[in-house]
Write a structure and sequence with these properties.
The structure holds three protein chains of three kinds.
Chain A: H1 2-23, H2 27-43, H3 46-59, H4 66-92, H5 96-103, H6 108-138, H7 150-161, H8 164-195
Chain B: H1 10-42, H2 47-62, H3 65-75, H4 85-111, H5 114-122, H6 127-157, H7 169-180, H8 183-213
Chain C: E1 6-15, E2 18-28, E3 33-37, H1 44-51, E4 59-64, E5 67-68, E6 71-74, E7 77-80, H2 83-90, E8 93-96, H3 108-118, H4 124-137, H5 153-165, E9 171-175, H6 183-198, E10 202-206, H7 210-216, E11 219-224, E12 227-232, H8 236-239, H9 243-256
Parallel strand pairs in C: 3-10, 3-11, 8-9, 9-10
Antiparallel strand pairs in C: 1-2, 1-4, 4-5, 6-7, 11-12
Helix pairs in contact in C: 3-4, 3-5, 4-5, 5-6
The chains are: A mainly alpha, B mainly alpha, C alpha/beta.
Chain lengths: 196, 222, 258
């Protein structure tokens, strides 16, 4: 469940993050929206955001499963961080490249699609994988709304076995292994692309 | 919307805010103090000092703060470590952040040019004097931006301690929300509150950053 | 027999498999200026850094005022000198680096005064007074309160010279002190160095400034591939028929003439 929620969170988060980033380049209103979006999701503790969202959905009488709500929340938050990471990378790409594309007759859409995004995503890979490990750990917080992910499951086992040290240490071990796998994968991808 | 329902809770909210700030500061101080020796071990030329430091850093960074808090609060008694939620929470926060601070310090020390240390050696300064007068201050300046960032992150993470019933702002607001049947409104107000708090901390941090790094930027006019 | 200020005998130094100094013997006399010249990679900076033991050497002797630097000999055995002993030796050897190596978090006067406080045990007031006097000497008393980032390269290097001078060294080492400077700033640093030489400071200078070497040096040593190829009075720069030195000077003139 931990893996499932984290992965879905990324799958939702990365596209939204890209959208948020692009919105930020479209005029004053777009820039303002992106600024507030990023500032809110980065400025409010994750736990509080989860609690807000979980109480917001019933409040507007919108009924989805707890898991779907958790994925939505994690996705929205990840999107804010992703858009910031991508923005940082975007600034590192010389403006001459967009100018060259424009000179060759690329429209704005084509410039984004073929020139900027592929580079930005590639250059952002290490930071994105780092973000993914943070998300993995953040997913432990959805245990508070009762979703049976790793932390919640271990809590439940502790409640019946009364062996908190062993159970929690095993859970920590699983998190550590998963983080290391992600970080290693990120490094490998980075090296793979650096070689070309 | 009836704001008067909040009035009886004002005292609790203020106390919750106090706990939040206290946990943040205590956790940050603990992490900064703990991170330094870990960073020094991590950079030690001796393998048997370096390896445990690496393992510590990787293990802590791979484990969610919530789980660390559970381990100390729930698992502590098994080691005869019976802690109230507050000290357990602060300890968890300090351990959690110490790994991040250790890495920040390490980057800082690596940023000090070798020549600056050689200059101190050529003047006959002892290793301790060199560390205190040259390496440490230069490293601290180099890492101020990451340090400020880590402190901002930490201020948000204190909310996680509400789960082990540290009576911080998040804890009190949740309680208020449940008792007044206005959970969403309370929590949304809480979110705005944190947003404001974090913005203030970030702004102060940026100002502090400019203050301590002014001497490495050439003055624009004289 | 008068004692040499620096006496280097049969010095060997290697980085891994590469021998960067082989069988170097050289002396520097009190109140004289010795210039080390040679192509890059010839080992001249390494040789200089062996004199205050920033670089360890494997074999041979480096003696300053008759005392072996960096090692202690006991019963024919040689072991690394203690840190305290090494610091005490370095105290009398001032060093100026190519990259200045001023500490960016201290002002000019802070850079000069701090070692006086930490190493020489001066009070703050004494240290400030001495630091200001030495800054005055290098013409920078007015910049005492400036941070290094707000000084030009030439000014930074003069502060670095002041920092070393304030310790009252018996000997000053200069490691390409003008190589990192813009051409128009080289003059002010060389001027300070000439003044220092005329006051009788013992100096060992690694330099690419042949004009300075010809004018200020009492002795010039030309190194190539880790060996001293020729050593003698400054007029070897004009009269030598040693082919490697001639070729080195030829390249130098081609680069600097237009």
């Amino acid at each position: 469940m931990t893996v499932y929620v984290s992965l879905l969170g990324v799958l939702v988060g990365v596209p939204i993050g890209i959208l948020v980033l692009i919105t930020g380049t479209l005029g004053t209103a777009g820039r303002l929206f992106t600024k507030i979006y990023v500032s809110y999701f980065r400025g409010v503790p994750l736990l509080v955001q989860l609690l807000v969202l979980f109480n917001f959905l019933p409040w507007i009488k919108f009924d989805i499963s707890a898991t779907a709500a958790a994925v939505t929340a994690l996705g929205l938050i990840t999107a804010a961080y992703v858009s910031e990471i991508l923005r940082g990378t975007l600034h590192s790409i010389p403006p001459g490249q967009s100018e060259a594309a424009a000179a060759l007759g690329y429209g704005p859409r084509a410039t984004w699609q073929y020139i900027l995004l592929p580079q930005v995503i590639r250059l952002s890979i290490p930071a994105l994988f780092n973000e993914l490990t943070l998300l993995l750990k953040s997913s432990s917080l959805i245990s508070v709304v009762g979703i049976a992910e790793l932390t919640r499951v271990s809590q439940n086992i502790v409640a019946t076995t009364f062996r908190p040290v062993e159970i929690y240490l095993v859970a920590a071990g699983i998190y550590i292994v998963m983080s290391q796998i992600l970080l290693t994968a990120g490094r490998l991808l980075e090296r793979h692309w650096a070689r070309r | 919307m009836d704001l008067s329902i909040v009035v009886p809770y004002l005292g609790l909210l203020a106390s919750g805010f106090g706990y939040t700030v206290f946990c943040w500061l205590a956790g940050a101080l603990g992490a900064m103090a703990l991170g330094l020796p870990i960073a020094l071990l991590r950079m030690s030329p001796v393998r048997w000092l370096r390896i445990p430091a690496v393992l510590y850093i990787e293990a802590i960074r791979g484990t969610p703060l919530l789980l660390i808090a559970f381990l100390i609060y729930g698992g502590g008694p098994a080691f005869g470590l019976l802690l109230e939620p507050l000290p357990a929470g602060i300890l968890a926060l300090a351990l959690h952040a110490s790994a991040y601070f250790a890495e920040i310090y390490r980057v800082g020390f690596n940023a000090v040019p070798r020549g600056h240390v050689e200059a101190a050696a050529s003047l006959g300064m002892s290793p301790v004097a060199t560390f205190l007068r040259v390496q440490l201050p230069e490293a601290l300046v180099a890492v101020t931006p990451s340090m400020v960032n880590a402190l901002v992150v930490l201020s948000k993470e204190t909310s996680i301690l509400s789960i082990i019933s540290v009576p911080d702002l998040t804890y009190e607001v949740q309680k208020m929300g449940i008792e007044t049947f206005a959970s969403f409104e309370s929590l949304f107000a809480l979110a705005i509150g944190y947003w404001a708090l974090v913005s203030v901390i970030s702004t102060l941090g940026a100002a502090f950053e400019r203050r301590v790094t002014f001497h490495i930027h050439a003055a624009r006019s004289q | 027999m008068t004692q040499h200020m620096v006496e280097i005998r049969h010095l060997h130094k290697r980085f891994g498999a590469v021998e960067v100094l082989s069988d170097v013997s050289l002396t520097a006399e009190t109140s004289k200026v010795l210039c080390l010249i040679g192509p890059s990679g010839s080992g001249k900076s390494t040789l200089l850094r062996c004199i205050n033991f920033l670089e360890r050497y494997e074999a041979g002797d480096v003696r300053v005022e008759g005392e072996l630097v960096g090692y202690e000999e006991r019963g024919g055995q040689r072991r690394l000198a203690s840190g305290a002993k090494l610091r005490q030796q370095r105290r009398k050897i001032g060093m100026v680096f190519q990259q200045f190596n001023l500490w960016p978090h201290m002002t000019a006067i802070g850079n000069v005064a701090d070692p006086l406080i930490r190493v020489r045990g001066f009070s703050k007031a004494q240290a400030r007074e001495r630091a200001l006097a030495v800054l005055e000497k290098v013409g920078l008393a007015a910049k005492a309160a400036s941070y290094p980032a707000n000084l030009s390269g030439g000014q930074q290097q003069r502060v670095a010279i002041a920092r070393a001078l304030a310790m009252e060294p018996h000997l000053m080492l200069f490691d390409e002190p003008t190589s990192a400077l813009d051409p128009e700033l080289v003059g002010e640093v060389l001027q300070v160095m000439r003044a220092l030489a005329s006051e009788g400071m013992t100096m060992v200078v690694v330099t690419h400034e042949m004009g300075f070497a010809a004018g200020a040096a009492d002795k010039i040593a030309f190194l190539d591939k880790g060996r001293i190829v020729q050593c003698g009075p400054p007029d070897i720069l004009r009269k030598s028929d040693e082919p490697r030195l001639r070729q080195f000077l030829q390249t130098y003139h081609e680069r600097n003439d237009f």
